[in-house]
Amino acid sequence: MTTHTTPTAPHLRTGAKGEVLAARYLERQGLIVLSKNWRCPEGELDLVATDRHNLIICEVKTRTSTNYGHPAEAVTFEKGLRIRRLARRWRADHHVRWCPERFDIIAITWPRNEPPKLQHFKAAF
Q: What start-end ranges are recorded for coiled-coil regions in this protein (predicted)?
């Protein structure tokens, strides 16, 4: 049996809250979220969604400040390549043949005791 617990490290709690916010945002935009935090031995996809025409793989980055750069800057070229490989694995595991796909970033800046600021970068990589 797998149990899901709330992360205890502050940065992990921030990330988990950001992923919940991002999933709700995508659903409000009319997308259907197919997977949240899908894992395989090679890594994890934060969110996989569809607009009924495209498969949308969304990397979520949440930070409490921009002191170390904008959250979207954490998605490097190498990370983008890994996410693309994981997307192929997700499609194979879910028996989804080829379909148009898009790779998005949702960047959230969520300072303590302030409302979050969410930015959605479509086709970011």
A: none
Cα 105 to its chain centre, rounded Å, is: 7
Question: What residues contact residue 26 under an 8 Å CB cut-off, 6+ apart?
Answer: 33, 47, 49, 56, 58, 106
- SS3 state of residue 111: coil
Q: Tell me, what CATH number does 41's domain have?
A: 3.40.1350.10
Looking up tokens 């086709």, which residue turns up? 123
Residues 64 and 112: beta-carbon distance below 8 Å:
yes
Instruction: State how many domains the chain has.
Output: 1
**pLDDT tens-place string over residues 61-109:** 999 999 999 999 999 999 999 999 999 999 999 999 889 999 999 999 9
Q: How far apart are CA 13 and CA 92, in angstroms?
A: 30
Range of the domain at 38: 10-121
Q: What are the Cα distances from residue 66, in Å, to 2, 63, 73, 110? A: 35, 7, 10, 10
Angle at the Cα of 21 from the Cα atoms of 27 and 88, rounded to 5 degrees: 65
Task: Please report which residue ranges of the chain form alpha helices under DSSP H.
Answer: 10-28, 77-93
